[in-house]
Amino acid sequence: MSLVIKGGTLVDATGTRRGDVRIEGDTIAAVGDGLTADRTIDAGGCVVSPGFVDLHTHLRQPGREQAETIETGGRGAALGGFTAVVAMPNTDPCMDSAAVIREVIEWARTAPCDVFPTAAITVGRRGEALSPMAELAQLGVRIFTDDGDGVQDDRLMKRALEYSVGLTPFTGGQSVTLAQHCEVSVLSEGGSMHEGEWSSRLGIPGQPSEAEELMVMRDIALARATGARVHLQHLSTEGSVEMVRRAKAAGLAVTAEATTHHFTLTDACCADYDPVFKVHPPLRGDRDVDAVKAGLADGTIDAIATDHAPHTRDSKELPFDQAPPGMLGLETALALALTELDIPLETLIGLLTWRPARIAGIDDVHGGPLVAGHQANLCVFDPELEWQVAGAAMASRSENSPYEGRTVRGRARHTVLHGEVVVHDGEAQR
Ligand code: DOR
Q: What is the mean pLDDT of residues 344-363?
């Protein structure tokens, strides 16, 4: 069975042009004009890009399947245009052992999106002892993180970075990256939102920007000392963005991501004490949002991530200080980027595709380019389509979208995973 995606505007790391894409099996067979095949998908008025890659997804399996599963999260990802997601390790049990990683890989086989598990840096994400990193790397793990928490102990973090540099014999020569949730817990403890004017007004204890920035500063210093690859997750403050800008100028192996909520929402959203706006790191101020946008525009920040964090309705109905932090992101990421970021389309697609794919070490299969011989992992999206966000209509088991009711622009129409149309005309096919 062959497939042709007809008449779209092709955008990938090599540039922008018009053309048809012919797919045979799981591979792009030809790119050009006037191509035919057994099945045709009309991409008129649409952009055809590599499938999106999310470096930061919480799929909740094992342990919190009432909020999400690999299958439902994978479906949401496909509907959002993603063909690959990197799954966070704060499951229950935590993804810190070969047994759990093997299970996640097994469950993910039937998901409508490729799932690449991270593993915890420390046993139980408790920050006390290193996980069996070599064994986990051997199973295919390329990103280690204690996400949900940062590694607090400076010496342990340094040792993890030193160790990560020597893991190439276990990965067939591929580099391993340590990703950090930058949060110094003694400074953030007890805080439920950004510490600033709004937290004072609302009487909600805050988390100061410095809780993030001190760990960003430390990890940049440790990247310099060890030569290891450090990826800084969900950057949210002006100071963090500036430090990464300088680290890159100094040639360090530091990369960074920003979430869609950190460039679209501010701490003022918490004014009604609605826990749907509670997230870690917290929504910050206007200057921070502007700095994150500037970092995305000038290349300082490498990737747009979702930090898709499903939570059940019951838990999100608790009072603000007791509700868990986190918000949905997979199905709204593209639209928010298109609606809110004033950057060229090629730059935007790079932030969603080839740049995160490189960080995850999966750029041989995801992130393009759209050329013959490459894996057919693609997204066909309509950049102009306006739609209204509704959590209940999403594939996720949870509904905690902070964009409920908002009109946004741009939506994935078709998603192709290894040659299979897993989303057709906005409908999941499995
Ligand atoms: O808001 C967040 N939610 N931040 C985290 O670090 C963890 C995540 C979750 O797992 O819900």
A: 98
Would you place residue 205 in the very low, low, confident or very high pLDDT band (cuts 50, 70, 90)?
A: very high
Which SS3 state, helix, strand or coil, does residue 158 take? helix
42 is catalytic: no
Residue 326 Cα to ligand 1 midpoint, Å, equals 5
Pick the catalytic residue from 54, 146, 149, 307. 307
What's the residue count for the chain?
A: 430
Mean pLDDT of 380-401: 98
Domain covering 51-366: architecture: Alpha-Beta Barrel (3.20)
Average pLDDT, the chain: 98
CATH number attached to the domain at 3-46+382-387+390-428: 2.30.40.10
Q: Atom of ligand 1 at shortest distance to CA of 58? A: 10
Main-chain dihedrals φ then ψ at residue 24, nearest 5 degrees = -125, 125
In DSSP terms, 48 is beta-bridged to 10, 380
Q: Where are the domains of the chain?
A: 3-46+382-387+390-428, 51-366
**Which residue has the least CA distance to atom 4 on ligand 1?**
280
pLDDT at residue 95 in the model = 98
